[in-house]
Amino acid sequence: MKDKVKILLRAIAAGIMISIGGTIYLTLENKMVGAFLFSIGLFAICAYGLNLYTGKIGYIIDNKLSYINELIITLCGNLIGTIGCGYALTLTRAEFKLKTTAHAICETKLNDNLLSIFILAVFCGIIMYLAVDLFKKIKDFGKYVPIFMGITIFILAGFEHCVANMYYFSVANMWTLKTALYVLVMILGNSVGSILLALLIKFGINKK
Questions:
Q1: Mean of the pLDDT values across residues 159-177?
Q2: Residue 129: what are its φ and ψ, rounded to 5°?
Q3: Distance between alpha carbon 134 and the CA centroid of its chain, in Å?
Q4: Are 80 and 15 in contact (CB under 8 A)?
Q5: pLDDT over 90 percentage in the chain
Q6: DSSP H stretches of helix in the chain
């Protein structure tokens, strides 16, 4: 139980970090700068070893079946962190700017079809696994480069990140059954993309 609580707390903290990054992105007019600064979220998550679903799902192939429990707790914690931050920020003077920008972003997502959402989420999952895995493998200062590049690329490319979108939907106050369905498809797509790259690396790229 103690370990599960720790996992949950680290996951909530990760959700908060993603929300902070998302807030920066929604606030800035320059989307290139906003996308780059969004990276502070993943930077903090990797530096402190926090639990982000999209950073952990790819490692399911290297873990025991019990790892699924950690992933479920992580996803729940990410949801708590992002929803809490999203709705808390609607109580501040930043509400209008955040809500207006987030609403436009969420409308675009919800007006898209599920196949498109899934494919965009798959590519986001690929980038997230790449960023986190390179952070773990590179031992010098260069380990931070894939974090900032990865986040910037997936945002500017319009790829779908399930946890970031949990925050956007919350600050825009647009949670419905349809929203929940779209988030589930994003989770599935992120998972498939991350696991796919992990498998390619393990059984293909790294094989001599």
A1: 98
A2: -65, -40
A3: 17
A4: yes
A5: 92
A6: 2-27, 31-38, 40-48, 53-56, 67-89, 95-110, 114-137, 145-157, 162-171, 177-200
Give the CB-side neighbour count of residue 13, counting CA atoms within 13 A.
15
Contacts of 67 (CB under 8 A, 6+ apart): 59, 60
Query: Cβ distance 57 to 188 under 8 Å?
Result: no
In the chain, what percentage of residues exceed pLDDT 70? Answer: 98
CB atoms within 10 A of CB 4: 11
Per residue in 197-206, pLDDT (tens digit) is: 999 998 887 5
- Each residue's pLDDT tens digit, 76-134: 999 999 999 999 999 999 999 999 999 999 999 999 999 999 999 999 999 999 999 99
Alpha carbon distance 79, 162 (integer Å) = 9
Question: Which amino acid is present at 37?
Answer: L
Neighbours of 95 (CB within 10 A): 13
What are the structural domains, with CATH classification, of the chain? 2-205 (1.20.1080.10)
Distance of CA 6 to the CA centre of its chain: 20
Q: How far is Cα 57 from Cα 70, in angstroms, rounded to an integer?
A: 10
CB 178 within 8 A of CB 169: no
43 is written with which tokens? 């930077």
pTM of the predicted structure, to 2 decimals: 0.94
